[in-house]
């Protein structure tokens, strides 16, 4: 991305925090399969600060939407404490293949990381770490469901596995869905974040990210109205 393109994805900016609309398909960290990653572009977001902002949390490569960055050491420290205390609110939009029988609920199913010759994956297992997701159906249509998920814990692949356990895996999920080569991108979007005041005199922050283009048709089929129309 050019400096203009990454700066155009800023949803919110103040002296402490930047909230970025991360595109689907872009990893946040470097890795063996991630020569292009978000950290390469963070120097374009200094805006007069001596150092670039840093990640306060992470999103999976294929998940789009709200990503919080801290602009300096104190902000990163305060954000870290808020995440540890579960005081930062997050809500995700998902479009699933199939739909749950009810309209809302809570999934409490521990997750365990398994590593083998072929790599690693997460599984639901009583020996794993506690994982809790609240969910509610926002719409249905064409054999799909539009679901808002609010994770109360922050485990890797939590929403993906919890929705699969609910009987409605995410569209485009190559790891946990029915098709290892799905014809579409993952339909999981970090829709909202809310951050309590980082210091006295500061206001709370509430930010929403518009759905990515690859999810709009499925969302519309479930009843979402595109504000751009």
From TrEMBL:
Keywords: Isomerase
One GO BP: enzyme-directed rRNA pseudouridine synthesis
Transmembrane segments: none
Record flagged with keyword Isomerase: yes
Domain (Pseudouridine synthase RsuA/RluA-like) ranges: 16-164
Pfam families hit by this protein: PseudoU_synth_2
Protein's name in the database: RNA pseudouridine synthase
Family stated for the protein in its record: Belongs to the pseudouridine synthase RluA family.
Origin superkingdom: Bacteria
InterPro entries, alphabetized: PsdUridine_synth_cat_dom_sf (IPR020103), PsdUridine_synth_RluA-like_CS (IPR006224), PsdUridine_synth_RsuA/RluA (IPR006145), RluA_PseudoU_synthase (IPR050188)
A single GO molecular function term of this UniProt record: pseudouridine synthase activity
């Amino acid at each position: 991305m050019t400096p203009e393109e990454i700066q155009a994805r800023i949803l919110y900016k103040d002296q402490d925090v930047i909230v970025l609309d991360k595109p689907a398909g872009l990893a946040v960290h470097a890795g063996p399969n991630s020569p292009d990653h978000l950290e390469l572009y963070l120097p374009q977001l200094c805006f007069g600060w001596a150092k670039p902002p840093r990640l306060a949390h992470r999103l999976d490569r294929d998940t789009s939407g709200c990503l919080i960055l801290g602009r300096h050491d104190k902000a990163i420290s305060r954000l870290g404490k808020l995440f540890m205390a579960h005081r930062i609110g997050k809500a995700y939009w998902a479009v699933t293949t199939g739909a749950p029988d009810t309209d809302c609920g809570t999934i409490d199913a521990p997750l365990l990381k398994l590593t083998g010759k072929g790599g690693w994956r997460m599984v639901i297992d009583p020996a794993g770490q506690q994982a809790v997701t609240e969910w509610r159906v926002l719409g249905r249509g064409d054999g799909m469901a539009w679901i808002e998920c609010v994770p109360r814990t922050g485990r890797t692949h939590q929403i993906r596995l919890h929705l699969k356990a609910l009987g409605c895996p995410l569209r485009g999920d190559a790891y946990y869905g029915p098709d290892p080569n799905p014809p579409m991108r993952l339909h999981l979007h970090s829709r909202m974040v809310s951050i309590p005041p980082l210091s006295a005199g500061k206001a709370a922050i509430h930010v929403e990210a518009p759905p990515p283009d690859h999810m709009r048709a499925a969302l519309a089929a479930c009843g979402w109205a595109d504000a751009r129309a």
